[in-house]
Amino acid sequence: MEDSASTTGTGARPLSLSVDVTAPEPGLYLVATPIGSARDITLRALDLLNTADVLAAEDTRRLRHLMDIHGIHLRGRRIIAYHDHNAERQRPAILAALADGKSVGYASDAGTPLVADPGYRLARDAAEAGFSVRALPGPSAALVALSVSGLPSDRFLFVGFPPAAAGARRKWIAGWRDVEATVIVFESPRRVKQLLEDICEAEANRATVICRELTKKFEEVMRGTAAELLEQIPEQGLRGEIVVLFGRPEAEPADEQALREALSGLLGRFSVREAAAQVASRCGVPRRDVYALALAMKKERE
């Protein structure tokens, strides 16, 4: 998602690989690359980039620049471009290399391969053909944003990039808006304001976090409700790489009819107190109010 070749700090020297490492076994290796600071790459990823027989990348220039920063030479190897526009054409060449018993390292534009990039088809076809598929874990913009957001992380949903068309985007939002989880979105910096406007049409008070330029020098995290952050964003949008997170939807207070319906199926099987406790917890209503209603319903039945 972000420039994998940028660095943080000053006076940093390239890391030169001077230690011999064992050549990887044949198979496809999915290599996570930095989303911002080039120093976030793992030692295992550097080893693989240094020793794989074949390299493939969503953006060959970025991978080449990242390798240059860390002192890794191609030594006659070619980096195969593999992205949305040429995946069908290039995939057979990569599978042929795997069939020849070679090790292939695939790196996405930045971050973890297969997260909002075309690599999943390559991994699927390689696995179906019987080749080994392994992941080299590392940076992920979605997980970095979740970590710093302050939103609940026990259950989260990554929904990728929104559709650009207004109608399709609203339908897309409706598909996840009621999910009881923190929602993670990748968005164009120019369309963040439009995304928040669409959210505010249904739930202006939704807890929202905007993460900009994660792991870079000018990293910024904005927190508030969707309406509050909407007011802070200029008409032209933001700059840099953006991740937007939405907290869980607010519980809508249940009306008396809804509470009666929920209680009606429980009063015959549980005590008034237990039935009231279950409904109060489920509907987010004070227990004493539900208990009073349950008592009234019991008297009505008697």
UniProtKB/TrEMBL annotation:
GO molecular function terms listed in the Swiss-Prot or TrEMBL record: rRNA (cytosine-2'-O-)-methyltransferase activity
Gene3D superfamilies cross-referenced by the UniProt entry: Cobalt-precorrin-4 Transmethylase, Domain 1 (3.40.1010.10), Methyltransferase, Cobalt-precorrin-4 Transmethylase, Domain 2 (3.30.950.10)
Catalytic activity: cytidine(1402) in 16S rRNA + S-adenosyl-L-methionine = 2'-O-methylcytidine(1402) in 16S rRNA + S-adenosyl-L-homocysteine + H(+)
Coiled coil ranges: none
Domain called Tetrapyrrole methylase: residue spans: 28-229
Subcellular location as annotated: Cytoplasm
Key words of the record: Cytoplasm, Methyltransferase, rRNA processing, S-adenosyl-L-methionine, Transferase
Enzyme class: transferase
One GO cellular component term noted in the UniProt record for this chain: cytoplasm
EC number: 2.1.1.198
Record-linked Pfam families: RsmI_C, TP_methylase
UniProt cross-references to InterPro entries, sorted A to Z: 4pyrrol_Mease, 4pyrrol_Methylase_sf, 4pyrrole_Mease_sub1, 4pyrrole_Mease_sub2, rRNA_ssu_MeTfrase_I, RsmI_HTH
Similarity comment text for this entry: Belongs to the methyltransferase superfamily. RsmI family.
Function: Catalyzes the 2'-O-methylation of the ribose of cytidine 1402 (C1402) in 16S rRNA.
Protein known as: Ribosomal RNA small subunit methyltransferase I
Protein source organism: Paracoccus halophilus
Record lineage: Bacteria, Pseudomonadati, Pseudomonadota, Alphaproteobacteria, Rhodobacterales
Gene: rsmI
